[in-house]
Design a protein that fits this description.
mainly alpha, Histone, subunit A, two-stranded antiparallel sheet
Length: 99
Amino acid sequence: MLSIEEVKKIAALAKIQLNSEEEKRHTQTISVVLDYMRILNEVDVTDVEPTYEVNDLKNVWRKDEVKKCDNSISLVEQFLQKYAGMLVVPGVFESSTEA
């Protein structure tokens, strides 16, 4: 069984705050999960091949080709804000200089 100190350390690593009731509850719930992991560690998997993909999905690769876009003018016309023939979008980065 985990101690409350260990749960506090786990909570700190996860950057979550727990009250005393939650700490007590998580000592039990996390201990149950760890006990189950111990049971799984006892299973003999010597002759079992690792399973990397269960859906049999495969990557689909295609050649990267540049294609002409015939509707670029109509797309630009639909955009709300334009400046000098370019699209204006909201800024992503905030200014780091403050007065």
